[in-house]
Specification:
Strand content: under 5%
Order of helices and strands: HHHHHHHHHH
Number of strands: 0
Largest sheet: none
Radius of gyration: 18 Å
Helix content: over 70%
Distance between the termini: 26 Å
Structural class: mainly alpha
Number of helices: 10
Mean pLDDT: 87
Length: 224
């Protein structure tokens, strides 16, 4: 089982290296929106500071959503996913590996680059650590939830809009608590309650999402 999971993770990372556009797109989208936002509301530092937490989190959510549809698409098209479904090993573990690879390629880079984007929006330095921690927790939750939508729609040729309709309602609580944590930190208050809620969401998602993803993949493969 360990070799299988390592092979799945290595394969996803190698495919990402061969298709760098899919990895770079969310980062470019994040950068463009952050650069254009000050042009829309004006360069007033107070306004930028006020809107920065919500803007950074909304853009991170949408950037993660851009890459969700392709989480299982390539392996479904070439038959690899069907072989995983038919394998004797539990499917939820490879499913969790796919989600982890997605987070490594989207959520982690967004988190690491977020201080640069935060400075562009005049976010106070005291809130940058909270921003990174909230994104570290929140983007993992977004990847897990997105994996459920991707698994249910992987058999559809144009499932992007359907994925959005399925998972955005579940993204909203993550957005609320993630942006609230950064807002509290920017105001000089403790963001620990919001971060604890994000940690609880992540624990719940890790415990339940892999089984839901596995069930969705079986449904999609059988329907296909």
């Amino acid at each position: 089982m360990g070799r299988l999971l390592a092979a799945c993770l290595r394969r996803q990372l190698l495919l990402a290296v061969r298709r760098p556009v899919e990895v770079v797109n969310p980062l470019v989208f994040f950068l463009l929106v952050v650069m254009l936002f000050p042009l829309g509301i004006g360069p007033d530092p107070r306004q930028l500071t006020e809107f920065a937490p919500a803007v950074l989190w909304i853009v991170a959510l949408l950037a993660t959503l851009l890459a969700v549809e392709g989480m299982f698409r390539g392996d479904f098209d070439d038959g690899t996913l069907e072989q995983l479904v038919l394998a004797p090993q539990p499917l939820f573990l490879p499913a969790l590996t796919y989600v982890f690879a997605h987070w490594l390629l989207t959520g982690l880079p967004l988190t690491l680059l977020s201080p640069l984007f935060a400075l562009m929006l005049q976010l106070p330095g005291k809130a940058i650590g909270t921003l990174m921690l909230s994104l570290l927790l929140g983007t993992a939750v977004l990847s897990l939830i997105g994996g459920i939508g991707a698994a249910l729609t992987v058999g559809l040729k144009r499932g992007g809009i359907l994925i959005s309709l399925l998972i955005i309602p579940f993204y909203v609580p993550v957005l609320i608590f993630g942006s609230a944590a950064v807002q509290f930190a920017a105001a000089g208050n403790s963001a620990q309650p919001q971060l604890l809620v994000l940690g609880g969401m992540l624990s719940l998602a890790v415990a339940l999402a892999p089984f839901a993803i596995a069930a969705g993949l079986r449904i999609s493969v059988d329907a296909g």
